[in-house]
Amino acid sequence: MIDGQDPEVARLATLATSITAARRKLGTHLEASLFANPGLDIMLFLFAEGINGATVTTNACCAAAGVPRTTALRWIKLLQDRGLVDGSDDISDRRVTMLALSPLGRSTIRTWLGEIAALPLRESLDR
User: Fold this and answer.
1) To which H or E segment does residue 49 belong?
2) What are the tens digits of pLDDT across the range 45-84?
3) 85: nearest Cα among 95, 77, 96, 74
4) DSSP 122
5) What's the pTM?
6) Cα 55 from Cα 100, distance rounded (Å)
7) How far apart are CA 120 and CA 118, in angstroms?
């Protein structure tokens, strides 16, 4: 079964996008560089965007990381070296590198998001 056909994976992709949005929102209240985590941002982006097995351009990943391009490229290389992200040439333009989470990267992020989704939410913060 393709991940995109699995409602649980779609729910986790939405959670990944929400985590990224929540982290960006914090940057509107405090200095965003204090909370930069390009590796996590790239992996969450690739998880959400790759729900149907889609690949994403390196440029899109750099933008999603929210850091300077050179920093994002270093993180992409690190994630590739650790076996968490796979890169391949775009079949229509060999100058473009397409990225996707490796099976290990996808499995790891899926498990982590599932653990987060299972955490209980407190109904009130004043308890």
Assistant:
1) helix 38-49
2) 999 999 878 889 999 999 999 899 999 999 999 999 999 9
3) 77
4) P
5) 0.85
6) 5
7) 6
